[in-house]
């Protein structure tokens, strides 16, 4: 069922040319009236979700209507649903997508330089777009991160405030805080680097605390080149293994962690990878924060397939 507002964009007799999909309960849950009126001023047809799954369905509907401009107001979970709907309809490459960050952490929007609602509308009015990569796990898309291992617990236990301050590192921190209670997950991670001649495959096998596969997310720069991860056709894979020697962990230790001082860390760029659970239990994983489980994850990336509105100064580095 399609739930829409009555206010349609004038002149849209053949269907709207721009649609806003709004999750009214994301984040603090008080944004919907203001977002709606700012979107209506700009000629958007506003469609508000009433339950999980609606944003994905609305994106499929918009694809069927050939709507060329889609905006999504919500957090990473709502963005993921919209991208999933576009992938269902095989129209990822046919639309321009704008994110209005009204979620709790909004990690994906922030990676595009869109820090708040005001800046999202400025970005929309400015019209600068970039084609970005989209990651896939067994055909399901993710724009920001796929986390496997203890991520199930880390996801549900990571406070929103910590996510806002630390971004994706909040999950790492929460995982480490949970360590006294959890064992690592025995995994085999097969990593492909490069696509054609010169490509190589590396295998990592061990007990992983967390496997973090990033598309748009950025790790703090630890002696690495400073370029975007979201337009290079590669995924950044970070594996934290074994138990650190300390029981409690604090934020100041993040750089030490990344330098491999506290717990063995493997960081590698991949054009594709698979993560296989070595026990009977399915591997818990999350796509942009949404929890799932599977015995084996086949992970790939489709290079520059999605046109996103981005903050203009940020666009140069994307
Ligand atoms: N009307 C609704 N009622 C209840 N749940 C909804 C509704 N619309 C969407 N949802 C669900 O809300 C969930 C959370 O949304 P989302 O991830 O966008 O926000 P958030 O968790 O506040 O932000 P972030 O992921 O950036 O921290 C999604 O899984 C989505 O499916």
UniProtKB/TrEMBL annotation:
Signal peptide annotation: none
Q: Name one GO cellular component term.
A: plasma membrane
For this protein, the record's SMART domains field holds: DAGKc (SM00046)
Q: Which UniProt keywords apply?
A: ATP-binding, Kinase, Lipid biosynthesis, Lipid metabolism, Magnesium, Metal-binding, Nucleotide-binding, Phospholipid biosynthesis, Phospholipid metabolism, Transferase
Tell me a GO biological process for this protein: phospholipid biosynthetic process
Keyword Methyltransferase belongs to the record = no
* PROSITE patterns associated with the record: DAGK
The protein's matches in InterPro entries, at most eight in alphabetical order, are given as:
ATP-NAD_kinase_N, Diacylglycerol/lipid_kinase, Diacylglycerol_kinase_cat_dom, Lipid_Phosphate_FormReg, NAD/diacylglycerol_kinase_sf, YegS/DAGK_C
Which residue range or ranges hold the DAGKc domain? 13-141
Identify this protein by name: Diacylglycerol kinase
* Origin species: Natronococcus pandeyae
């Amino acid at each position: 069922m399609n739930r829409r507002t009555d206010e349609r964009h004038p002149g849209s007799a053949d269907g709207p040319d721009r649609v806003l999909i709004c999750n009214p309960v994301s984040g603090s849950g008080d944004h919907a009236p203001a977002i709606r009126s700012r979107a209506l001023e700009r000629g958007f047809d506003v469609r508000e979700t009433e339950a999980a799954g609606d944003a994905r369905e609305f994106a499929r509907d918009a694809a069927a209507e050939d709507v060329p401009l889609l905006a999504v107001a919500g957090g990473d979970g709502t963005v993921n649903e919209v991208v999933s709907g576009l992938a269902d309809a095989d129209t990822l490459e046919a639309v321009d997508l704008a994110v209005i960050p009204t979620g709790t952490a909004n990690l994906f929007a922030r990676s595009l330089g869109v820090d708040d609602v005001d800046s999202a509308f400025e970005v929309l009015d400015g019209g600068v777009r970039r084609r970005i990569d989209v990651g896939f796990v067994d055909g399901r898309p993710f724009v920001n991160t796929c986390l496997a291992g203890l991520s199930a617990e880390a996801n549900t236990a990571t406070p929103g405030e910590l996510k806002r301050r630390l971004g994706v590192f909040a999950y790492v921190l929460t995982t480490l805080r949970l360590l006294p209670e959890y064992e690592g997950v025995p995994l085999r991670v097969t990593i492909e680097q490069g696509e054609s001649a010169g490509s190589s495959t590396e295998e990592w096998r061990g007990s992983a605390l967390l496997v973090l596969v990033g598309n748009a997310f950025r790790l703090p720069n630890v002696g690495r080149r400073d370029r975007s991860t979201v337009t290079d056709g590669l995924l950044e894979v970070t594996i934290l293994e074994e138990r650190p020697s300390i029981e409690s962990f604090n934020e100041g230790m993040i750089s030490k962690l990344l330098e491999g001082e506290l717990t063995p860390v493997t960081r590698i760029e991949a054009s594709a990878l698979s993560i296989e659970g070595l026990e009977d239990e399915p591997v818990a994983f999350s796509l942009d924060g949404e929890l799932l489980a599977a015995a084996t994850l086949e992970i790939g990336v489709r290079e520059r397939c999605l046109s996103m509105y981005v903050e203009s100064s940020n666009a140069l580095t994307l």
